[in-house]
Amino acid sequence: MGFFETTLASFIALIPVTLAQSLILSFVVLGIMIPFRMLSFPDLTSEGAFPLGGCVCGVLLAAGASPLVAIAVALLAGFLAGCCTAFIHLRFRIHSLLAGILIMTMLYSVNLRIMGRSNLSVFGNPTVFDWVPGMQAGFPASKIVVAGLISLLVLALLYFFFKTEKGTAVRAVGSNPDMAEAQGINVWAATIGGIGLAGAFSAGSGALMVQSQGFADVNMGLGILINGLAALMIGEAITGKQTVLRQLAAPFVGAIVYYQLVSLCLAAGMPPPDLKLATGLFVLTMLALPSLKLSRGPAAAKETFRE
What we know:
The protein has helices spanning 3-38, 46-62, 67-92, 96-115, 140-161, 165-175, 177-182, 187-213, 224-239, 244-267, 275-306; strands at 119-121, 215-217. The longest helix is centred in the first third of the chain and has 36 residues, at 3-38. The radius of gyration is 21 Å and the shape is globular. Residues 301-307 have low confidence and may be disordered. By secondary structure, it is mainly α.
């Protein structure tokens, strides 16, 4: 077999695994999108909330708790982490990025305290992926079904929420906080609630990932933010962001496409250590494209005028 045939065969074989992984990690992308796009609140909490949810879930599973209870507690922990970031920013007027870095740094110690060690194995413990009838537990098919159903449910709930009065208020705060406050909207409640929701999604993704891979690690969130940004850029390029539905769909679409691209790079023989460099360059390219288009606009206009 030639290089192309070998790469294609390897890529096809990896599709079920990467599809399951991308659906689980799409919630981190959602947790990145909500602060950045809905609230205009640049935030790094997701890189700390993701392992927080995983560590909480891992400890509860090891203690014999139900998988749903473990996910629920992880969601609550992530929500509190996000609320802390927003509160620090609002109360002490600390920049949102710095507030996120502070919470992310402190969460590393918190995660170590929660688990009492750097990693924890939960192989053999029950998970939500075991509950799909007619499918073998632990295999990609069951993970795709569970994560896919949760994704659809979350997408539907968020869409209807952002169409309500409270959801519109959150979007208004992100668009213009001064005008929103003048209209009687509680900016503090909208900001803290929105960032808390984003943290909950990131932590929930970590909890699902722990149940999927069978272990928790304090370093499992390393680099998840840049991966999430890359996925969000791809998703927005595909779906656009002109409407609420398009903006909400972007994290899920982007996560699926991004991790398939990563899978293709691995199938083509790219060394895993080079993936971070490739991801960073890709995000840089996506962010620079609008600027490049604008810089070429006047030149293009001049050429058209000359013709």
